[in-house]
Amino acid sequence: MNLNMRSGSMLISSGVLMLPLLQTTSAKNNNMSADLPNVIYILVDDLGIGDLGCYGQKLIKTPAIDNLAANGMRFTQHYAGSTVSAPSRCSLLTGKHTGNAYVRGNRGYTHTDGIDYDTPLPAEEVTVAEIFKQKAYQTACVGKWGLGGPASVGHPNNQGFDYFFGYLGQGNAHKFYPKQLFENNQVVPLNGKVYSHDLIMEKALNYVEKSAGKPFFLYLTPTIPHAELVVPNGELMGYEGMFPEKPFVRKAGSYGSQAQPKATYAAMVSRLDRDIQRLVDLLKEKGVLDNTLIIFTSDNGPHKEGGNDPDFFDSNGPFRGYKRDLYEGGIRVPFIVHWPAAVPKASVSYHISAFWDFLPTVAELIGVDPPKSTDGISYLPTLTGKGKQEEHNSLYFEFHEQGGRQSIMKDGWKLIRLNVNNPEKSTLELYNYFLDPGEMANVVLQYPTKVKELQKLMDSQRTSNPYWNFKK
User: Fold this and answer.
1) Angstrom distance (rounded) from CA 407 to CA 403
2) Domain segments of the chain: what residues?
3) Which residues, other chains included, contact 298 with Cβ-Cβ below 8 Å and sequence gap of 6+?
């Protein structure tokens, strides 16, 4: 994968820098709702930037997702909200980085039904879905939620989503044959007999089928390819026997055993890809593909669970680190935008962006004011070529497991602080990710002035939160 690491918003599309945002005929009739695009945000679980053909993958076939990139825009430097699931999703939906977001880590509670769910998003938080509702969009979340359990203030129906189907608790989403899922607040019993991904995709396709008549926002959050590694009926999508395998044997409390973990991981990614093609085909059939903005990305870097071997597939591409790391491999994710009405084909953006930019982008897209509390910057000018693209001064991340970690990125430099909760053992690492994208050379001793500058900036980025504070 040959990525240009320099910042900026240069776009390449067959020699054409940008195309203007196309106007629909209905605009002449001042039919506002007809001008508004549908938006489908596809957030997959633990997919690495190197797992897709359009980012350099050679072993796993992803033709449908690659086609989205070939007919849209591929970002080379886009960052997840966090290096694990719940805070990443909170950042995406509320437009705040983890220094200001309400949910900054994976933490849960046990509901009266005896099942563990995740820290609820408070009622006062403004979500992307609530932004869409200001223009009367239909809204749905189908897949994994992870920001509040049944009847809580954090339930998607209480956060701007008209419809929800899937896993409310992310811990439950580790099983692809669950006992139950939820449809809105109603339990859907499955008794471990249904492969959840297939049912989630059927619900998503049904939603698009019924909603294509007026603008809709679909937040589609499949759990593939998170562990456990399993596919129904041994459907390995042609990968059986292709790779050297080390069987994964289940230990108490861990994921299920898998005789062919590499083939199964590849099959899960290709199964996802197959279903992305089904979605695109349906949009085309309904006549709304051209004016549907599709975004495809992952919630964090690749996992090493359930027997998965991300090094074999080069899932993190040229980058160092995995899920739970603040190195590039843990937070730099694939980001593809497909929108035929506005985004030029085969374009590449080097604009540095992050999950918390989605909310202000949506606000600008549909013409409403974003909350003043957002940390994000709209990347709509990069997509459409209209207006001036603002740039981030810096990007901040924090992580509350494994001793506590923080990082700050600015002007090609990244400072990482490890063991934040144990000041006596806390250490700093400094990298230049423009010149050293693999973060191989820790130059913290060579640039003391830069370290002090970034330390001061890092400390200024977070607000106090009673549930997510570091020890002093």
Assistant:
1) 14
2) 11-392, 397-459
3) 43, 44, 45, 46, 47, 48, 49, 80, 333, 334
Token pair 């869409």 in the structure block, residue: 132
Fold of 397-459: Arylsulfatase, C-terminal domain (3.30.1120)
pLDDT at 13 over 80: no
- What are the φ/ψ torsions at residue 140 (nearest 5 degrees)? -150, 145
Chain segment 359-375, per-residue pLDDT in tens = 999 999 999 999 999 99
- Bridge partners (DSSP) of residue 294 are 40, 338
pLDDT of residue 11: 35
Angle between helices 261-285 and 63-70 (to 10 degrees): 50
Residue with tokens 């694990």: 84
Of 408, 409, 419, 407, nearest to 470 by C-alpha is: 419
Tally: H helices and E strands in the chain? 11, 18
Of 291, 280, 282, 297, whose CA–CA distance to 343 is shortest?
291
What's residue 33's pLDDT? 52
What would the mean pLDDT of 372-395 be, rounded to a whole number? 97
* Alpha-carbon dihedral sign for residues 336, 342, 345, 348: negative
Q: Residue 32: is its pLDDT beyond 60?
A: no
Cβ-based neighbour number of residue 60 at 10 Å: 22
pLDDT of amino acid 466: 85
Alpha carbon distance 154, 152 (integer Å) = 5
**pLDDT higher than threshold 90 for residue 427:** yes
* DSSP string across 128-188: HHHHHHTTT-EEEEEEE--S--TTSTTSGGGTT-SEEEEESSTTGGG-SS-SEEEETTEEE
CATH code, 11-392: 3.40.720.10
Report the distance separating Cα 34 and Cα 287, nearest Å.
Answer: 13
CB contact set of 267 (below 8 Å; sequence gap of 6+): 231, 235, 236, 237, 239
The first and second tokens of residue 53, run together, are: 């053909």
- Provide the pLDDT confidence category of residue 12 given band limits of 50, 70 and 90: very low
Sign of the CA dihedral running 254, 260, 266, 268: negative
pTM of the model: 0.93
Which range is least confidently modeled, 105-119, 146-160, 164-178, 209-223?
105-119
State phi, psi for 66 to the nearest 5 degrees.
Answer: -60, -35
User: What is the C-alpha to C-alpha distance for residues 321 and 45, in angstroms, rounded to an integer?
Assistant: 16
Over the chain, what is the mean pLDDT?
92
Check pLDDT > 60 for residue 22. no
